[in-house]
Amino acid sequence: MSEIIERPMPTPDAATGPYWAAAHEGRFVMPRCNDCGKYHFYPHPLCPHCSSAKLEWVAVSGCGKLYSYTVVHRAPSKAFADEVPYVVAVVELEEGPRLMSNLKGCAPEAAKIGMPLKVAFRKLSESVTLPVFEPQ
Ligand code: ZN
User: pTM score, two decimals?
Assistant: First the structure.
């Protein structure tokens, strides 16, 4: 059963559309450079490692570790009032990129730097699904 809540939503564009479309289908993808083979995130029009424009969205493992985090105790708006306290996490993927996300299935006091994480998906609306991370 998915939960539907009202809150600020991502606004997919040409650069981020593939990420959000895949997430909504339960797939986790990252841009990869077809010249140097490295992944990056957030999306760029050129590879930040070698400046190539030969980029491709590819499925990644969804596995990583907790690189850093903070616990939000005061909701930034009423839309988040029912969610505090929650963890804002920086996750380092096995493929290299780091991204900001939230932890699921992990009490804030149980979060530990370096803990292994795996992507999960949280449906925010009929058109938006947010990749989040849970302990492995
Ligand atoms: Zn490259």
Answer: 0.92
